[in-house]
Every structure is written in C-alpha cells, then in structure tokens.
Design brief:
single chain, alpha/beta, Rossmann fold, two-stranded antiparallel ribbon, 9 helices, 17% strand, globular
Length: 287
C-alpha cells in the first residue's frame, strides 16, 4: 500500500486522511500542506487505487479488508494520537475501525485483572466524516456503481479532465486548474492514452448489492457510529445524495460528541481544496 506523507516523520500526532471510492491519497494535498506544521499527515492510496497494488481476488474490495490494511498502516506509524479524516468510503473505513475496536474491548476480558499487559488500542483523537454516515442511500450507491467499472480511454489529458468534471457535478464549482488536480492522480497515461488509475474490478462488490444487503450494512455502521466516544465533525454537502439532512440530523441526536458543518452549493462530496472547506476542519481538529 502506497501512502503520501507530509510534515515531520518523527511527529507522533498523526492525521490519517482516507479518500473516496475511486480517488487517491493525493486528494488531500491542499489540506495536508495546511496542517503539516501540526501533524504528520498520512494519505494512503487504498488498495486497488493509485500507486497501491491490486488484489488478486476482487471480492476483497470491501470495507473489512480496507480496515485490516489500515490497522497495519497505523501500527507502522505508531501514533500517540490519531485523528481521522475520511471522505465517503474513507469515512466508512473509519467507522469500521472504530466499531471493531469497540467490539473487541467489549467482548474481551479485563486483561489487567488477568495479570496481562493492557490491550493495545488505536489512540483516536478526533474524527471527521466527509459526506458519509451510517445510512447509505441505495440510489446514491447505484449512481456511483454505474461508472466505477466502466473503462474509458482518452487520447489527451484534457479529455480526461473533461470527463472527471462531467461525472462529478457533486464536487461543485472548481477552476480548470483544480479539475486538472482532481484528474491527475486518478488517470494514468498508458500507450499514448489516458485510462483510469484504479482496478476496474472495484465494481464487483456493487454487482451483489441490494436493498437487504445495504440495510444489514447500515445496522453495523450505526452500531459503530454510536460507539464513538471522541469528538466527531460531520462535513456535509448541502446537495448530497449520499448523506441526507435527515441522516445527519439523526447522527447529531444519537451521538453527543458530534457536530455538523454544511458546505453550500456542493453535493457528494466536498473536495477540501478551498479555504471555506478546510477552515472548519482545521478549527475542529485544533480546538
């Protein structure tokens, strides 16, 4: 698994930034530059994306595998405090980590009482969920699934930029330079053409999605979310089709540690490239 790192590698205060379904760790370049004076900012390319390797078995492109990979990465980083910023899928991975840790602690005996060394836990500090929550919009997932597995081939980089802009209306308004940055690491040049820089088999798990499977996943995600005992910032695009206002409202009610910031004129998901999106995250993390 490749990851991008910003700031002092000896800094044990780590901000782990995890991207959305078909994106890469380079999505956080602007935010990382802003925060690397305080944090060691680490931005992985989740397996199957960017510069990371691909899985042999495409059935592994699911959240439990990603959670296991992140546990390994976190052990390597050895943070004294870990803050988490997850966009879309990256938020689900964060919920998976938090839920797994809470379940592990609840089911295992008191190691201290048994004369054993305390169980090592991930030292979570603060959590940012960027336009994602436990309620998964089936229509929103279906929309994403429609383009994930489709190969497209472009003769020029500009054509790839136009494509990313056209399929990403939820990102909101961006300059041409910003659209180029949003394209540069999700397309790769191969044999004089530009193709998607991820394993198209990421779409395979979507092929077995149905309403019942989504509902079962939601129950697990709600349990994970309810277990969070550290401050949580819900960053929501006002026009999002994946995190509804009703779901965000329920999240605020169910977890007293949560607060919300809504980004106007943006759907799924805020790209964290502008000051009005980065500033509330910075204020929350450094409060």
């Amino acid at each position: 698994m490749a990851y991008w790192e910003w700031g002092d590698p000896a800094n044990d205060r780590v901000l782990l930034c995890v991207h959305g379904l078909t994106r890469t760790g380079r999505d956080f370049d602007t935010l990382a530059q802003r925060l690397c004076g305080t944090y060691r900012v680490v931005c992985p390319d989740v397996v199957g994306r960017g510069r990371s390797d691909w899985l042999i078995n495409a059935d592994g492109y699911v959240v439990p595998q990603y959670v296991a990979d992140m546990v390994t990465l976190i052990a390597r980083l050895a943070p004294a405090r870990l803050d988490w910023l997850g966009t879309s899928m990256g938020g689900l991975i964060g919920l998976g980590l938090l839920g797994a840790q809470a379940m592990s602690r609840a089911m295992r005996p008191d190691r201290g009482a048994l004369g054993l060394a305390p169980e090592k836990i991930i030292p979570f500090g603060r959590v940012v969920l960027n336009d994602i929550g436990p309620n998964l919009s089936f229509s929103g997932l279906s929309r994403i699934g429609e383009y994930v597995g489709k190969q497209v081939v472009f003769d020029t980089f500009d054509q790839a930029v136009d494509y990313v802009r056209d399929i990403s209306p939820g990102f909101g308004r961006h300059t041409r330079e910003q659209w180029e940055a949003l394209t540069r690491h999700v397309f790769v040049q191969q044999d004089a053409h530009w193709i998607k820089h991820y394993d198209l088999r990421l779409a395979k798990p979507f092929s077995v999605q149905n309403e019942a499977a989504v509902q079962a996943s939601e129950a697990l995600l709600w349990a994970a979310y309810d277990s969070i005992s550290v401050p949580v910032l819900l960053l929501r695009g006002a026009l999002s089709d994946l995190l509804s206002a009703d779901t965000a409202g329920e999240m605020l009610v169910r977890n007293r540690h949560a607060r919300q910031h809504v980004v106007d004129d943006v759907g799924h998901a805020p790209t964290l490239m502008s000051d009005d999106q980065i500033a509330p995250i910075e204020a929350f993390l450094l409060a």
